Amino acid sequence: MGNSRLPQARMYFCLDADVLFEGLAVSGGVDSMALASLCSQIQRIPYDTLRSSLQADYNKNITGTPLSKAIKFQAFVVDHGVRKGSNLEAQAVSEILEARDIPTKLLKIDWLGQEKPADLPNFESLARKYRFQALGTACRDLGISSLFLAQHQDDQAETVMMRLINGHSMAGLTGIPKCTEIPECYGLYGVHESGGVNKAHKVWTRSVLGSNTMPTPVAPLEGESGGVKVYRPLLEFTKESLIATCQEDGMKWFEDHTNKDPTVTMRNAIRHLYKNHALPATLSKPALLELSTMARIAKRATLNVTNTWLRRSSVKLETSPGTLRVRFVNLGQYDRSRVEVDGKYAAAALIRRIVMLVTPQEHVKLSSLLRAVERVFPEWFRNAEASPLSTTFTVAGLQFKFNSPPRLHRGYRLLEKCEWLVSRQPYKVTAALPRFEIPRNPKSLAPTDWSSWNLYDGRFWIRVQNLSNEVLVVRPFNKLDLAGVKRSSLWKGKRYKVQKLLSELAPGDIRWTLPAIATMALDGKERLLALPTLYVGVVDVEKLVKWQVRYKKVDMDVLTLSDIK
C-alpha cells in the first residue's frame, strides 16, 4: 500500500462510521493481517491527532466528546478445526497480534459432533454461519458493537462476477456493502439488531413496550436497537496493496492451501480463471467494479425516489399487535416518463421498506413484491382507475386488507388512496407455529432469574420469569383461549378489558397472531395466563409470571418520513 496510502487507510476507518471501532476479525491470511497492521498503527496515534488529520485531509468537521486515549482494537481468530494444524496456526496468529498490542481471543467452531465437516455438501455455508455467530457472540459478550472485516477490492470484483453467474439483477450487482448488520446471526439477542432500547421517536399508537402494565393511549415506540455492525474499510484497496502493506510493515501472514483449490468454492474457481485465463474486457476486474459502482448509483437513485414517495404516504405502526395502517402515495400524480428510475421496482422498494416494519421474515426479495405493486398501485398500470385490484391479499408473510375507501373528486379523480390494514398473515394449519417453553420454577431458583430473550415470530423480543410450578409456553393466542377468557373465573373482572383490547387493536383474524403465555399441565393441556403484548393477564397474574416485551428493531426513517406533511 505504501506510506502515501497508509494515512488514507487510517483515516478511512474513522471517517466511515463516527463510532469507536473495537472488533477485528483476523483469519491469519494476508488480507486480515494487513488490516491488523493498520489497526496496530492506529492504536499508537493519539485521538486528537487523528481528529485533526481527518479534518485536514477530508475537510470534515469531527464532533463528539474528545477521547483521552487512542482507539483500541480487540481481535478475534476463528479456528474452524477442519485443517490439520489449524489450532497451532490460530495460536501463532494470536501471538503475532498480541506482540503488536492487539489483545486476541481464539474462537473454536463447534461442529456439533460432525467428525468430517469438510465433507458436508453445505460446508461452505455452514462454516460462514458458525463463524459469524462465534464472532457476533464474542463481540456481544465483550460489549463490542463494531467489527472490522478485511474484504478488499478484488473480493468485490469476484462477488460481482459470482452474482452475474447466478443471474442477479442490477440490484444484486452492488456487491459487498461497506457497512451492514452482522450476517448469519438472526435471532441472537444482543448480536443481531437488538440489545438496546430505542425511545427516540413517538408514533400515534396505543401500544407501549415494557413489562406487564396497561399502556397509555399515546406512548413512545419502545423497541429494540443495538446489535453488532460489520465494517469493511479496505474495499477500495487491491490485494496487491495489502500484500505490500504487510511486507512494508514486516507483518507475517499464513497461506491457506484450500483457497487455491478451484474445486472447493465458486470464489476459488473465479480466482483460478483470472490467474490462468484471459477473460473478455467486459469481465475484467475494473469493468466489474465499474458495474458495481453503477449499480450503487442506481440503488441510491431508487432510494431517493422512495423517500419522496414516503413523504407523500401515511404509515402508522401499532406495536402491540404488530400492525400497520398505510395510505400509499398516489402514483397517478406522477408522469412516468419523468421518473428517473424503474417505477415498478421503485414501488416495490417502497412497499418493502414499509412491510419490513411488521413482517415476520428476516429478508423480503424485491421480486416477490412485483405482483403486490399492481395491487397497491393500480393507477400506475391502468388509466385513472382508483380501486385496488383486490381487497385482500397476502405477501411477505403479511395480509393486506382493504380498510377504508379512496376519496374521489366528482366520482372519478383520485384525491386520496384507500387505506390498507397490514397485519401478520394468519398461520396456516399445516405450518409449524412459533413457540418456546419456559421450565417450571424449582424452589431453589432465585425469583429474579429470567429466560433468555427470544425473537418470537420475527416480530417481538420476549423474555419470561416463571414464578409458577408449571411449565410455561409462549405460542399464538387461539379460540380455546378466548373461550376460556369468557368462562373461567381466573378472568373474572378482566373479560371486558380483553374483549375491548382485541376489538380495537386486533380485530378479526389478527388476534390469532398475537403471542400468548400459557401454563402447560402434565397431560399437555394448556391454560391461558396472559397476552403479553396487550399487557393483560388473569387475576393475580404477577404471582405466576412476569414478562418483558420489546418490538423488533425497525427503520425509523420510514415512520418519520411518512409523518412529514
Automatic annotation (TrEMBL):
Entry-linked InterPro entries: Rossmann-like_a/b/a_fold, TilS/TtcA_N, tRNA_Ile_lys_synt, tRNA_Ile_lys_synt_N
Protein keywords: ATP-binding, Ligase, Nucleotide-binding, tRNA processing
GO BP field: tRNA processing
Domain tRNA(Ile)-lysidine/2-thiocytidine synthase N-terminal: 24-272
EC number(s) recorded for this UniProt protein: 6.3.4.19
Matches recorded under Pfam families: ATP_bind_3
Protein name listed in UniProt: tRNA(Ile)-lysidine synthetase
Protein source organism: Hyphodiscus hymeniophilus
